[in-house]
Amino acid sequence: MCKLEVEQPAAQLVLALPGALQNASLPQAEGQGHALRWPFMDCLTDDLPLLELLCAADEVRVHGELESSCPHENAPDAVTDTYVVDGGRLLLTLWHGRLHEVIYRTPAESVEDASRRNDRLFAHYGQGDGWTEILDNGFGRTYRRADQRRYALWSYAMDITTFGTMGFHQVKW
């Protein structure tokens, strides 16, 4: 099964945080009031599915209702499946038989909830590597994982977070 939900120790979580806290130690992060408390607090985005990029399409499992499945508008041979999940929608792009992109359209109820959700997502999709902010265009931020094999986008204007493979990113844009 491709669904993967692993609790990360706080020290690993801090290493994978985007932005200003990326190189902070746990005491520094806690001193800045950052939402490293996500495993201990409940909100709708705390239970979002964590998926494994590049897993086989037939192994993808999402607990939610499949709302639609349609061809990707910019990538030949890619299909985007939209699921209704607790907290919003999850868009999964399958390309060449593998999961290449996950879009979380899961608006948080507060800035703290959004921060906690993003900390959790960036830690999971970082897989132990940090993230570097590449661009802030006033609408959102673009990140690259340290190994340059993954990208992330966070639209703070719309509170949508995307994770994907660089191979797919090059084809889609």
Structural summary, described in words:
- The protein is of the alpha+beta class and 173 residues long.
- It is 20% helix and 31% strand.
- The protein is built from 4 helices and 8 strands, in the order H-H-E-E-E-E-H-E-E-E-E-H.
- The chain has helices spanning 10-15, 26-31, 111-126, 166-172, and strands at 65-71, 78-85, 88-95, 98-105, 131-136, 141-145, 150-155, 160-165.
- An 8-stranded antiparallel β-sheet has the order 1-2-3-4-8-7-6-5.
- Residues 3-41 have low confidence and may be disordered.
What descriptive keywords fit this protein?
single chain; 173 residues; alpha+beta; eight-stranded antiparallel sheet; 8 strands; disordered N terminus
Main structural class = alpha+beta
**Which whole number gives the mean pLDDT?**
79
Question: Got a strand count?
Answer: 8
How many helices? The count is 4
Give the helices and strands as they follow along the chain.
HHEEEEHEEEEH
- Main beta-sheet strand count, sense and barrel state: 8 strands, antiparallel
Terminal CA distance reads 30 Å
How large is the radius of gyration?
15 Å
Question: What share of the residues lie within helices?
Answer: 10-25%
Strand order of the largest sheet: 1-2-3-4-8-7-6-5
Lay out the secondary structure.
Elements lengths: L9 H6 L10 H6 L33 E7 L6 E8 L2 E8 L2 E8 L5 H16 L4 E6 L4 E5 L4 E6 L4 E6 H7 L1
Antiparallel strand pairs: 1-2, 2-3, 3-4, 4-8, 5-6, 6-7, 7-8
Short structural summary:
The chain has four helices and eight strands.
